[in-house]
Amino acid sequence: MSKRTMALALGIALSASFPAFTWAAEDPALLKDMTAVIALLGLPCGQVVSVVTKGENDHIATCKDGNRYRVFLNPAGRVVAEKQ
How many helices (DSSP H) and strands (DSSP E) are in the chain? Predict the structure, then answer.
């Protein structure tokens, strides 16, 4: 086997072994929840098109209009959205 073929086979095997590294579709429920949270806080967004989870109750939401917000729980337990 050539080095290139060996590297490709190893890459495929590793990506199959570690599902966290594979691309997954956005969770529609999470997109809808983030859209609702941002709207309830009175911030301009329209619709959330992607969400990156940074940690438990800590997300970066990207809106259809280009705005990005960090949505998280503050130490008091309240939901906060900070413009990024």
Answer: 2, 4
